């Protein structure tokens, strides 16, 4: 995209009201131009050829052709950054996560046209996501989007111990897919895993359930007081709660709180990482994955200073190298690894310790 021209956006939605609202929101930004709108995928296909947009916003549920089928065809024939616009329903959340697997780069919920006081906050989020999407360059891909990573074998010497080892993961833009690759590759006896992914409320449970079905781990949306056990992963509830690691006697447990946003986020990766540094220190291995902004970089630094092993995803495999890039600038990461190497690194130290009989 030429540097000195606006980001060209095509808005695709079957609702005339939503098309109008998204157009008005995006037109607030001087560096964004809505070049056209489309009411269905066939209309969108024609408008893409006419206007050559840089970014699409795409309704999850579309007439004449569902959004997923259209997205698969688009990623195969003319890959471009797509931001999904999803309804806040269970079905909408599941289809949105499928869209991210197929190749969409991010998503927003449908705007609440009857809640005017929340509209500017929504506008800020949508504009930021479209700007970020415009900087992402995609490669053509065929379905399925990627071969599943090779799952690591369980440790032959028995299960990892219950309370001494913890994995902490943080991610934002592109993170659901990055986390899927990492979690899919981990063995069923991996240490307990705490995850903070920037995701709206209502989507975190769907994401956890999807990971539970598709990995060797037990994955759930975290609840206050959950005991952290091997072979299980706990996902921070989206939007409403921070997730912290805490001790209860000899055990680690999940703690949730509704404190204010940190780095503009709730849940915040920094909150999780700082609590892990305080409560577990050198017994943690943490990875900061793809994401916009800098949330998690300070917390990863605190973990490294506490003796934890810290990892940042590298730039080449990050959809957005904001959060891990900031961690690298701060010298917070002991290792900078491609996504495909992170799962093995997460359990390497734990296995060495288990083999030594610690």
Task: Please describe what this structure looks like.
This protein is of the alpha/beta class and 358 residues long. 35% of the residues lie in helices and 21% in strands. The protein contains 11 helices and 14 strands. It has helices at residues 16-26, 41-51, 67-77, 90-102, 119-134, 175-185, 204-214, 269-279, 297-305, 323-329, 342-355, and strands spanning 7-12, 32-38, 55-59, 82-86, 106-109, 166-171, 192-197, 218-221, 232-235, 242-248, 251-257, 284-288, 309-313, 335-337. A 7-stranded parallel sheet has the order 8-9-7-6-12-13-14, sandwiched between helices. Strand 13, helix 10 (323-329) and strand 14 (335-337) form a beta-alpha-beta unit. Helix 3 packs parallel to helix 4 (90-102) and helix 8 (269-279) packs parallel to helix 9. The radius of gyration is 20 Å and the shape is elongated.
């Amino acid at each position: 995209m030429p540097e000195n021209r606006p980001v060209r956006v095509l808005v695709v939605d079957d609702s005339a009201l939503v098309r109008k609202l998204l157009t008005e929101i995006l037109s607030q930004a001087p560096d964004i131009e809505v070049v056209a709108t489309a009411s269905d995928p066939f209309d969108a296909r024609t408008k893409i050829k006419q206007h050559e947009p840089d970014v699409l916003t795409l309704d999850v549920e579309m007439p004449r052709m569902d959004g997923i089928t259209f997205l698969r065809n688009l990623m195969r024939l003319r890959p471009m950054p797509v931001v999904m616009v999803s309804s806040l329903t269970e079905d909408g959340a599941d289809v949105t996560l499928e869209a991210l697997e197929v190749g969409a780069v991010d998503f927003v919920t449908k705007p609440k046209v009857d809640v005017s006081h929340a509209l500017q906050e929504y506008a800020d989020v949508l504009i930021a996501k479209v700007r970020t999407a415009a900087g992402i360059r995609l490669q053509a891909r065929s379905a399925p989007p990627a071969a599943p990573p090779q799952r690591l074998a369980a440790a032959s010497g028995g299960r990892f111990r219950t309370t001494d080892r913890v994995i902490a993961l943080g991610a934002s833009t592109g993170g659901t897919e990055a986390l899927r690759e990492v979690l899919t590759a981990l063995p069923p006896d991996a240490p307990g895993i705490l995850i903070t992914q920037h995701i709206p409320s209502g989507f975190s449970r769907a994401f956890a359930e999807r990971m539970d079905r598709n990995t060797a781990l037990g994955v759930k949306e975290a609840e206050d007081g959950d005991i952290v056990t091997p072979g299980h992963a706990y996902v921070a509830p989206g939007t409403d709660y921070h997730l912290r690691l805490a001790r209860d006697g000899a055990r680690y447990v999940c703690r949730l709180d509704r404190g204010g946003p940190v780095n503009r986020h709730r849940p915040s990766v920094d909150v999780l990482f700082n609590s892990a540094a305080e409560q577990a220190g050198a017994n943690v291995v943490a990875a900061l994955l793809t994401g916009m902004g800098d949330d998690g970089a300070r917390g990863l630094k605190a973990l490294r200073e506490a003796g934890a092993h810290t990892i940042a995803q590298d730039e080449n495999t990050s959809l957005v190298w904001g959060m891990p890039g900031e961690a690298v600038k701060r010298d917070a990461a002991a290792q900078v690894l491609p996504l495909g190497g992170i799962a093995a690194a997460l359990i390497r130290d734990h296995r060495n310790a288990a083999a030594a009989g610690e």
